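Troubleshooting entry. Yesterday's outputs looked truncated, so today I'm pasting the complete records for two proteins to confirm everything comes through intact. If either block looks cut off, that's the bug. Protein one:
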Amino acid sequence: MKILILSVSAGAGHVRAAQAVESAMRERHPGVEIRNIDAMDYVPAPFRRLYTRGYVSMVNSAPALWGYLYELAEHSSARANRFAAAMQRLQAPRLFRFIKQFAPDRIVCTHFFLPQILASSLKNGSWTIPLDVVVTDYDIHAVWIEPGVSRYYVAREALAYRLKSRGIPAEKIRVTGIPIHPDFLRKIDRSSVMKEMQLEEGKPVLLMMSGGLGMGPLVRSVEAISNLPHPLQIISVAGRNADLKAGIDAIRPANGCRIVSLGYANNMPELLTVADIVASKPGGLTTSECLARGVALVAVSPIPGQEERNADYLMENGAGLKAANTEDLEYKVLTLLGEPERLRQMRDNAARIARPRAAWDIADGVIADASRAVAPSP
């Protein structure tokens, strides 16, 4: 049996979701042949730069415009959607050739790119390989929805309801949560991590992140929080943005606050184990990882669209707060530090709505569906 997992490197979350499914699948189904690729490696370089760098540039410099386009695409005409899908399909002949050559029994994708470029083939039945879609936010946008998709894996029941209301049969939908790496299920000794990172027991730890690509006003936020009149320790994660990390390294807190400055971090289970509060952009994967570790998340300046809706989900369930700017972040952090019972309740709420086994559940579902499809007829 062969499974192809496809992601798109426009933001780090889609890739991390694909890696989580791959890891779970290799762990639970070692006999399956798996390929996990970035679809952007199979399209022309100009289109790749426009698709990936264009997204990062827009959400950094013009988030309101991104929010407008997000809402416009949600309600745009079918003709406009068909035009966008056709434009993307024309950029992907190498991707189609690779799929034909690998000949997978099933495809799993963690980005709406593939359902869009296959839209016409899915509709007329000329595409015969079953296509599973893993939605990586706590809301679902219209661009994810294609009737020809074989299976949808979604974060929560509300998304299943929305899919059904748009004509997707209930039997095609599974509510699993968003896939995070199986390492988040490991038991980690908090004291050992605190000692390794030279952090003091009994002093609150705030984990401040800017996403894998290093977006947002992290330097300004860390500097402001590090000077609050409260004993505090900060772990800063700047992602792959070297300039951002250099800016963090240059901060000299006036009150002796300890700052642990990191670039791209591949030990998120450990970091979330020691964190009392997380301040971060609320991407779908980041949100799910915080929930899995039962950590309260302060959503910092969420991008209009998917991130705002992720933040709304946290607040609806009492598992997080939203900070519109640096001053608001200072106030929210001070409030939580001054109300330990409220912080404890938020952590309990986070653990209550977590679905840390999502990657395993998706892996098992994909393999079960594929096994039924390839089983010989009696």
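Protein two, checking that the full record survives here as well:
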Amino acid sequence: MKAIILKDFGGVDNLVIKEIPIPVLSENEVLVKVMAISVNPVDVKTRAGKSLAAKLKAFDPVILGWDISGIVTESRSPLFKKGDEVFGMVNFPGHGQAYAEYVAAPAAHLAVKPGNITHTEAAAATLAALTAFQMLTRHFIITKGQKVLIHAAAGGVGHYAVQLAQHLGAYVIGTSSAANRDFVMALGANEHIDYKSTRFEDVVENIDFVLDTIGGDNIEPSLKVIKKGGTLISIVSGKSETVTEKAAESGIIGKFCLVESSGEDMNALAALLENGSIKSHVSQIFPFPEMAKVHLQIESGTTKGKLIVLTNN
């Protein structure tokens, strides 16, 4: 099978297509013929030698990626049979090996793909959608009427978070560029803030929950708009202690949380996708050999929604 291996951590020229053997299944795994792959900022950071690079450097070869949608061709699990269409985030934060034509995936990390969405839409709704779901229903439980601020609301995680928060009955404020205002409002946001022209901390207050997908200098102003007893969750690594300490000084709960593979949560997402409560926005689709272009687009920081790579087209 064809796979994109990472020769070394660094630039996109280290992403190389190579013929390697189809994986051999272990107990409770299924072999998935991959139809679509979703690419995330964590892929890009890891390729560059950051994020999960330290965890993966012991593997040979290193194959990036965690998000897949495809068809089961072999099963060693009672959960799925040959021919089932499945999707999920595989082995995160471990070695997902999703940049390949076939992936050996733990059955417990997958769900049946809803029949009313494509493999492209399903692949998009894996790591990003799962992050939004776990942050808004597990690490913080949104209740009806709460005020929620979602940063980078037009991005991969953000565009699912806006839809989910709205579905759960929250009053949703989203930040993005002015160019993406209509998109964010169409997702269900009640208010939009153009971060380029307006400091959100000057116009927002009494927030119950902030989902920070940016980190860095965004954390302190975010804490300023949260009411006492409120919560800030950052999904940007390397700031966990900073978030916790600065939040505690203001009587706020602040923490860093990382998404985890979960078939149970993927099934919950499948139900939301099936009934139309959330939808995937795919801004661009690329063929398998153009993975480097996808990484460069994500590095630009201007991606709306999700980018998808097709393995069989």
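Both blocks look complete. Sanity check on protein two: The two ends are 15 Å apart (CA to CA).
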